[in-house]
């Protein structure tokens, strides 16, 4: 049976080989981009911090919803960083980079809209799954962050945290594998959504250890940003966004392929 058109298109993109600790280099280069052009990145970070604070205030008495919402943020974050990818691309090409560069990345693009809808469905799906799990399996009401910490995390109810974490991982892993390279690739090259997703999966399959480290770094640093009453997100969000662009550039060979304007 012949290969699908998306798979054939994906094979245009080569996967470069990298050492296991290369994700630390992505963080270094992402920090360099943030320092070279701080204003757009800090605006992204401030927007994320404000949104996070609003969600935290709205869900302070419904922590079952809050836990799912913050997890869902990790799923859609790659799309929210599209403007930051554009900044890093401009810096890489020695072109002017400013707030306008980031905003221009959000011009109507059906491919990014489709991918955004898919990520939104995944995020909402996890929020509903998380809420249903905590409400359905918890023996006592979980209303506050203290309840979540005592009952779920610290083992007030055996296996509940493990089940919640395991289900989250089952959803997050394929979403991460589908989006980690796909969104910057869609911004950078004229490629279909399915081909970009297949390329992202090929990268993860080729480099399971570096990509697992990268996923861990993304999760831990985002968690630290949230743990500082969201203030840390002002820096963490743009830092990781710029670093994600360098992950794409390190991992995918696009030589000779048509660029997006």
From TrEMBL:
InterPro entries to which the protein is assigned, alphabetical: DUF2189
Species annotation: Pseudaquabacterium rugosum
Keyword S-adenosyl-L-methionine set for record: no
Pfam family, one: DUF2189
Keyword hit for Cell division: no
The entry's keywords: Membrane, Transmembrane, Transmembrane helix
Annotated transmembrane regions: 39-58, 64-87, 112-143, 163-187, 208-241
Name by which UniProt lists this protein: DUF2189 domain-containing protein
